[in-house]
Design brief:
It is a single chain. This protein has about 200 residues and is α+β, with helices and mostly antiparallel strands. The chain is built from six helices and seven strands, in the order H-E-H-E-E-H-H-H-E-E-E-E-H. The strands form two sheets. A four-stranded antiparallel β-sheet has the order 4-5-7-6, covered by helices on one side. Helix 5 runs parallel beside helix 6. The longest helix has 27 residues. It is globular. The two termini are about 35 Å apart. About 10% of the residues are buried.
Amino acid sequence: MSLARRTALLSWARQRDAVVIEDDYDSEFRFEDRPLEPLQSLDRSGRVIYVGSFSKTLAPMLRLGFLVAPASLQPALRVAKQLTDWHSETTAQAALARFIDEGLLARHVRRATRQYAARHVLIAAFLREHLDLVPSAAGLHLCAKGEVDPARAPEVAVESLPSYYAGPSEQGVVLGYGGIPLERIGEGLRRLIPALRVRPLSL
């Protein structure tokens, strides 16, 4: 969202005495432009709950996330947490806190961002050549519109774009690259080419 739209959303929340939940799921991995300033940092009236996760930056098995909430909502959130599951696993939380305090998480994210950026560039170039690439500057997947038949490339795990829509959508493909080593991507893209029914790209 542009700064104007973000400001308008905060104004809407103030006028209606509403709370905005900002789900900042994978903004740590941003490959173009500077990182966006969270909506929560623009909030001056305590209307935004900022929610994040360590599933992408570290590992889903940690099952740890976090939220930054206005002081007025913190008592109710603590009660809700206790009623739900008392508390998260304390050993993992303590280890993660130390990992963050020692600067190791920030170092890990910088290193991972460089690796993911290389994958992003390679896959984006392929999709731009063969399909209509949907602009994306962050995250661990890319999306493109166009005629694709995944059944013609059964060795490649891809998701069809319509499967992400509740209603009708354009044809296309979604490629995730979080768990694929850079050196295997070229071969995977070559195997995807028959599904695109276009001339092959030299990789």
